[in-house]
Every structure is written in C-alpha cells, then in structure tokens.
Design goal:
acyltransferase activity, transferring groups other than amino-acyl groups, 5 helices, Aminopeptidase, 26% helix, seven-stranded mixed sheet, alpha+beta, disordered N terminus, single chain
C-alpha cells in the first residue's frame, strides 16, 4: 500500500502526558527512521521517502561538530526529534534548527517541548545570538509554533524544494537574542 492510499491518521488532541526530552542515541535509529517515513513528518522536511534505518543509524553515530540532537518521548516511545547546529567562523553566533513530530502526536505539545529545549540550550548554554530555520509556507502549525517562541519571518524562498511532484516555497525565519 502506498503512502497516498493509507487512511488518514487519527490525530490525538490536546496534551499527551509527560514528554521527556533527551539526547539522541544510536539505539533510536529504528524509531527515528520510522517517524521520518511518515507522510506528514516527511512533508514538513527535506527528507526523501524510504529513509533506511542504516542511514539514520549512521547519521546518529556521526554527529556534526557543534550539534545538539534531541528526541521527545511519550511513555518511552520516540515521538519527535530536533537538532541545533552551531555554525563556525564569523557565523559562530548562529544556530540552525530543524525538527519534526510523529504524525499521530502533532498538536500535543511535543513540538513546543522540543523547541523549548533547543532555545534553552542556545540561550543559556551556547551563547547563540541568532537561531534560524526554514519552514514550508503551507505549514501553518509550525509557523505558529515558531512565532510563539519569538521567530520572525525574514523572507520567502521561492521554489525552495521539490515535494510531492511540485516546487514549494519556504519562509526563512529567525529569532534574535539581544
């Protein structure tokens, strides 16, 4: 059965109980790969379909220098992941972030918990002045989340990525700490 033929996911509503945020570990590879292959998660990222567990494990085992990688767990199930990559040289005051939440757990506070942890790390531990990200223009829930944390739209990137047979635009957003 293709992704398009699947029945719509029944989304949870409201909070889901305690959300634990922790650093990733190589044993998370299977759970993260499974989430990355969900149609909703993938639509909000630059990932291609059919990400393998092996690719994910290699990504987890060889983190980029100056990166922070987190997962969110609910009842010991990985339900989201996020990362912050600090730039270097004359841009060492900047962190770039990316994140995503399991299709069944959107709107339950998981994204807020992940983003709060990234912002806390940037502000209180890494002395990062500028956090930046890109988000597809049709991802209204993510845009609202980023705005809630002080991100502002700085520009529109036309034909930013090819997704589901067409080119889509993205906003570039940033949060400054003064």
């Amino acid at each position: 059965m293709s992704f398009e033929e699947r029945e719509p996911v029944k989304r949870r509503s409201g909070k889901v109980g305690p959300i634990e945020i922790r650093a990733t570990r190589p044993s998370d590879a299977e759970a993260i790969a499974a989430i990355a292959n969900l149609p909703g998660f993938r639509a909000g990222t630059l990932r291609l379909p059919f990400q393998s567990v092996e690719e994910t494990r290699e990504w987890l085992e060889k983190p980029a220098p100056n990166s922070t990688r987190l997962v969110a767990e609910v009842n010991e199930q990985v339900v989201g992941n996020a990362g912050l990559n600090r730039l270097s040289g004359r841009r060492m005051h900047i962190g770039q972030i990316g994140m995503g939440v399991h299709d069944d757990f959107t709107g339950c506070g998981v994204g807020s918990a992940l983003l709060a942890a990234l912002v806390d790390s940037a502000d209180n531990w890494l002395a990062i002045k500028r956090l930046e990200l890109t988000v597809f223009v049709d991802n209204a829930p993510a845009i609202r989340l980023y705005e809630k944390f002080g991100f502002e739209t700085e520009g529109r990137l036309r034909a930013f990525a090819f997704r589901n047979g067409e080119y889509v635009d993205a906003f570039t957003m940033a949060r400054m700490r003064f």
